[in-house]
Specification:
The chain is α/β, with parallel strands linked by helices. It is built from ten helices and 14 strands. Bound molecules: phosphoenolpyruvate (PEP) and manganese (II) ion.
């Protein structure tokens, strides 16, 4: 961090700023110029509030030269994080395919879809029991019962389950799920992030609809700073001026995050587009672009789905896609090893 002081700063205020910064454990290099004095702060500045310094009378400007997140930062953790989940893993060269319905609608539905996606090559089962819906009149999910049905589907197929936690009060029900999903709408629910940071199940954080990479990584930082290092990031499209698709899939996120963080990156082409026929091309693009996995909505009867039917694939469309994605992933790995 660099602090540029105003011309002729008040000595007392400067000394108190320096003492305060030293208390925070940073080393200060002072350069005295003709017009300005500059303080160069070296060390861990992630816990220093930049706005607090910028507001001081003697300060002209403050610039961060280091990211405000530490645990999620690749600079401090160069190796990719690999997260074991059930009998598989996320990251480390594996293509994770999370597939399943938007919402758990019944035991028969989720078990049938789980069997179909497993046979097609999916490595995890997704399904929402608690649903964040725009309308309070829309189907809100089966709640605790939905979680039980997901566990039955896991028992029948062996697939680990990924499901969304909407509120801290639901956390006791989530002790036996394999990955806790934090939805886009809750990406900056900081109390929820802290709560999942205090337990040890892996957490997948979906990108908020208007979140920058840094805001998204700061959400990961919340979970990690609370003690849980097993964080996965999921790009699910952001809001733009384009209204043809439900969201706009930001494929650059894969490469950008790869440089900024060591955490695994999943892409969700279903919520990104809102259209079933766009899922295949964007899923292919995500695998070719280096994603660690995909989250894809699959429903056995999309026309009658209680949520997100238009973006859901039928199992017989998902099966050849999963096969192609696994082949494409193997091909990309081969290319990369050449
Ligand atoms: C979901 O995965 O069911 C979901 C609601 O996704 P998002 O939070 O990305 O909208
Ligand atoms: Mn959905």
């Amino acid at each position: 961090m660099i602090v540029i002081l105003k011309h002729n700063p008040n000595r007392e205020q400067l000394e108190s700023l320096i003492a305060w910064l030293q208390e925070k454990g940073v080393i200060i290099h002072t350069s005295i110029g003709e017009a300005n004095t500059i303080l160069g702060l070296v060390g861990d500045t992630s816990q220093i509030d930049i706005d607090l310094i910028a507001a001081l009378d003697i300060v002209q400007d403050v610039k961060r030269v280091q990211e405000p997140y530490k645990n999620a930062n690749r600079k401090f953790h160069p190796e990719d994080t690999v997260i074991p989940v059930g009998n598989t893993q996320v990251g480390g060269g594996t293509l994770t395919i999370m597939a399943g319905p938007c919402s758990v609608e019944s035991e028969e539905q989720v078990v049938a879809i789980a069997k179909a996606v497993k046979a097609a090559g999916a490595t995890m089962l997704r399904g929402g029991a608690f649903k964040p819906r725009t309308s309070p009149y829309a189907f809100q999910g089966l709640g605790a019962k939905g979680l039980e049905y997901l566990k039955t589907a896991r028992q029948e197929t062996g697939l680990p389950i990924v499901t969304e936690l909407m509120d801290i009060t639901q956390l006791p029900l989530f002790t036996d799920v394999d990955i806790i999903q934090i939805g886009a709408r809750n990406m900056q629910n900081f109390d929820l992030l802290k709560a999942v940071g205090h337990q040890d199940k892996p957490v997948m954080i979906k990108r908020g609809m208007s979140a920058t990479y840094e805001e998204w990584l700061m959400s990961a930082e919340y979970v990690m700073a609370s003690g849980n290092e097993n964080v996965i990031l999921c790009e699910r499209g952001i809001r733009t001026f384009e209204s043809f698709t439900r969201n706009t899939l930001d494929l650059a996120a894969i490469s950008v995050l790869r440089t900024l963080t060591h955490l695994p990156i999943i892409v969700d082409p279903s919520h990104a587009t809102g259209k079933y026929w766009l899922v295949e091309p964007l899923a292919r693009a995500a695998v070719a672009g280096g994603a660690d996995g995909l989250q894809i909505e699959v429903h056995n009867d999309p026309a009658h789905a209680l949520c997100d039917g238009p973006q859901s694939l039928k199992p017989d469309v998902f099966a050849p896609l999963a096969e192609k994605l696994l082949k494409l992933h193997a091909f990309m790995r081969e290319l990369d090893s050449e």
